[in-house]
């Protein structure tokens, strides 16, 4: 074996070792993996807080430094998840990966894509869909509130996205946080169909924005009510047909009749 071949083999071995470590951290259930996943969630929440505060912070001198720091974190997380994945191509086809790529682009070009910055809050939605949050709550009452929690996240994400859109295209002339609060006030009044009428969006575009906000907002409220009041079901993929939601005391899959062995949450 030549020196170049030996060096290449060493690099491949190092990459394989790195991928193995990342897989254990991102998908493992050990105490070290739990600490890493918990820290990643905290960092994600801090990034989301930065996205929410962006309309107020973007006029400050330190905004670009914060923006590029967040871009580095998002890029590192995306790259690490790709290395940890057994099928990177499949991972990149998932909507959550598209969201991360879009967020990364807007962070790298904050001035040119400033009008699309409000869509960064979609990372909150992708975070709620990840398995890291729920992996360690397989037992107990917390698991029962998974659907309701995701419905709340969907509603909050929509609220913040619409608030960002309304602020960017209708209220940006307002002074800093006052304009953002006006945009949020209008959005909440519209979603809840309260319609006080003291704040309205001008023109045809404003009316269309209000119509879309009301229609989607009502749908999300209905989805939240369904998630709270419908009977609880456990997540256990059927080995035969793949159906993942079943009654807690189910013995057979209701779709294909296959015998199930759902673990007792009390054990």
TrEMBL record:
Keywords: Ion channel, Ion transport, Membrane, Transmembrane, Transmembrane helix, Transport. SUPFAM superfamilies: Voltage-gated potassium channels. The keyword Kinase does not apply. The chain crosses the membrane at residues 32-53, 65-84, 96-119, 151-171, 208-229. Pfam families: Ion_trans_2. GO terms for biological process: monoatomic ion transmembrane transport. It is a multi-pass membrane protein. Residues 156-229 form the Potassium channel domain. The keyword Membrane applies. Its main location: membrane. It is found in: Membrane. This is Potassium channel family protein.
